Amino acid sequence: MTAAPDLLRVAALFAVTALAEIVGCWLPWRVLKQGGSPWLLLPAAVSLALFAWLLTLHPTAAGRTYAAYGGMYIVVALIWLRVVDGVALTRWDIAGAVLALAGMAVIALQPRG
User: Fold this and answer.
1) What would the pLDDT profile of 58-91 be if each residue is shown by its tens digit?
2) Which terminus has fewer CB within 10 Å in the chain: N or C?
3) What DSSP assignment string belongs to 75-109?
4) What is the pTM of this model?
5) What is the average per-residue pLDDT within 102-111?
6) Domain residues of the chain, as ranges?
7) Cβ(72)–Cβ(42) below 8 Å
């Protein structure tokens, strides 16, 4: 398999994993900070369980997975900031996201021996 399909597959899995984590953390934040319904804690728990399960689907060692995952988490969190929170991204946000994705690619796509 070539590097491009590997990168797309890994990036998609990381993106879904990040979204599950963000939703699982945002819902309790909404309950505690914005007076949301305590019932939001149920889908939050499901989302965090999904997040943990998704992490097991990554093919590399856990520590390496977490390190590479951090890059995609940054990107998804910034997308969340823009789409859900309605905050405009700065050029610094974009530059940081690009650097984080480059780091993710280096870690995730290193030669396996």
Assistant:
1) 777 778 888 888 888 999 999 999 999 999 999 9
2) C
3) HHHHHHHHHTS-PPPPHHHHHHHHHHHHHHHHHHT
4) 0.82
5) 83
6) 3-108
7) no
